[in-house]
Amino acid sequence: MNPHLPSLLALADDVMAGRPLRSASGTSGANGHYRGPVHVGVDLGTAYTVLAVLDENYQPIAGTYQFAQVVRDGLVLDFVGAVELLRRMKARVEERLGFELASAASGYPPGVPQAEVRATANVLRAAGLECTGLVDEPTAANNVLQIRDGAIVDVGGGTTGIAVFRDGQVVYTADEATGGTHFSLVIAGAKNITFEEAEEMKTDPRQQAALFPVVRPVMEKVGAIVRRHIAGHNVETLYLVGGTCAYPGMDAVVQEYTGVKTFVPGAPLFITPLGIAMHNQ
Predict the structure, then answer these.
(1) Which of 23, 205, 225, 277 is deepest in the core (most CB within 10 A)?
(2) What is the pLDDT of residue 158?
(3) Phi, psi of 152 (to 5 degrees)
(4) Contact status, residue 236 vs residue 104, Cβ threshold 8 Å
(5) Are the C-beta atoms of 70 and 77 separated by less than 8 Å?
(6) How far apart are CA 69 and CA 155, in angstroms?
(7) pTM to 2 decimals?
(8) Would you place residue 83 in the very low, low, confident or very high pLDDT band (cuts 50, 70, 90)?
(9) Average pLDDT, the chain
(10) Domains of the chain
């Protein structure tokens, strides 16, 4: 695994919080002082859209993320809304950097039809970004994790994606419905509140322990999905990425159901977007 992962993800956390930073090259990575090459990634997720900017040394220097339901399971449902959202996010990041972003890469879940992959590229173009590359999300995540053997489990807003790696190469992928959106739905049903209210409760650290019994069945379903898809692949370690995996106890439940050692890196929401940005050359 990437020996620099903890420091990289801590830096990403700072970037997404909007704190001024210094890039690895020694020049400021925000407020208009950095003028070197950049690598830009856009992750159009079911729950969150993330825009990440890396410097020439592939270190995070700017970024932003926002909850928005313009995409579902890799399919662009609201093209106009997605374009407007990305334009606003792009403008915010450009204001921080002090220069215009010209291009970006994007990603897609395993198994998404190529027509929908092209739709994702068209969102970037319509928002003013040349789409220089499209990468499947497990490969993007492994640009950051750099694992050689094991499985990456990307639990997004709508789906759980699994990719098994052998010698650094993907040998098996799958993607099934069940993700963070389902957490919010069960909370809304249990508490008789709106989906938006449930989403706020779900992400409030003060309420997560009390909500754990409510969302645990969804975690168990994720564990069952993973167990089924890794059967026969001799996987020794699972690496959980995606914002849903930040929920306390998620790793323990998945490990319980699969019987496989399970690891959640810090800032799991940002791992795939960072890896997408690394694909922008």
Answers:
(1) 277
(2) 86
(3) -95, 130
(4) no
(5) yes
(6) 16
(7) 0.91
(8) very high
(9) 91
(10) 5-141+270-277 (3.30.420.40), 147-265 (3.30.420.40)
